[in-house]
Specification:
Number of domains: 1
Strand content: 5-15%
Shape: globular
CATH superfamily: Phosphopantoate/pantothenate synthetase
Number of strands: 8
Bound molecules: adenosine-5'-triphosphate, magnesium ion
Low-confidence stretches: none
Largest sheet: 6 strands, parallel
Radius of gyration: 17 Å
Strand order of the largest sheet: 3-2-1-6-7-8
Mean pLDDT: 93
Helix content: 40-55%
């Protein structure tokens, strides 16, 4: 479908198209389309832009990723459909490994996601070879399987659009968690060490550009970031937008 640039919701419709294409290509499941809908609603409320508090969270994330010893980017179907190119770029800049990690696990879908990432320049993809499977505690069956060389031994994990149970389990397992989540009230947003309340499609580009700007001295300094306070800022921004919209 051709969406005219002048359409007031052109950007969000383009994002929807990308996701639908991801669904048709076997990257995204039906449940992923619904999760996107939940995200869209919050994107509407934050004004479909990267807010001041999200910029702060992105700066802290860039420094944490660059300072960490063993960062891993966890990729699910929606993330791959929306940001394949950016995932590979971020991995190259930060030295982070890329691991395919699905809520609704399927070998076929894992392979389709890995193929798209490789097409975009990824050299090695973790999470697709059962030989290296390990379990994280406090999670049920398939959802707890991770790669021993990836998430299992990571110090920092970027887990965008993630379910709360898994985020909590990863946190209990000792990982530092960075997430993109448009809902500042979700369990993932509330559990992570750094929550970027932004659409991955916008936020990933800002995160990449921010990483490019930092020098080695910047990321050896101690990172001061209060996620609870930053989330409160995000909720305040939503309240302000709601007030503005209801007075329009
Ligand atoms: P939780 O399990 O953390 O409490 P949830 O059950 O409300 O959250 P899930 O479906 O488990 O939601 O996780 C998907 C999350 O991803 C939602 O919070 C949704 O707002 C968010 N989301 C969806 N699409 C995007 C996107 N494009 N960018 C950023 N966040 C998104
Ligand atoms: Mg959930």
């Amino acid at each position: 479908m051709l969406i005219p640039r002048s359409h007031p919701r052109a950007e969000s419709l383009h994002i929807r198209e990308k996701l639908v294409r991801g669904f048709q290509n076997g990257l995204v499941v039906e449940e992923g389309l619904l999760a996107h809908g939940r995200g869209e609603m919050f994107d509407y409320l934050i004004g479909e832009k990267t807010s001041k508090s999200s910029h702060e969270a992105i700066k802290a994330s860039a420094r944490l990723l660059l300072a960490s010893e063993h960062p891993v980017i966890s990729v699910n179907g929606n993330f791959a459909a929306l940001c394949a190119k950016e995932i590979v770029e971020l991995s190259k800049i930060t030295g982070a490994k890329i691991e395919v990690n699905l809520f609704y696990a399927s070998e076929k879908r894992k392979k389709a996601i890995a193929r798209v990432l490789k097409k975009n320049g990824a050299k090695e993809i973790f999470g697709i070879n059962a030989k290296f499977s390990k379990r994280i505690p406090n999670l049920d069956s398939a959802r707890r399987i991770v790669d021993s060389r990836g998430i299992f031994s990571a110090d920092v994990v970027l887990v965008p659009l993630e379910d709360g149970d898994r985020t909590i389990a990863l946190k209990k397992f000792g990982k530092k968690i960075i997430t993109f989540d448009l809902n500042p009230m979700s369990r993932t947003a509330q559990t992570a060490d750094i929550t970027i309340v932004d659409n991955v499609i916008r936020g990933m580009k800002v995160l990449i550009n921010t990483c490019k700007k930092y020098s080695r001295e910047d990321f050896t300094k101690k990172i001061k970031f209060d996620n609870k306070k930053n989330l409160e800022e995000s909720i305040l921004e939503i309240k302000k937008n709601l007030r503005r919209m209801s007075h329009a």
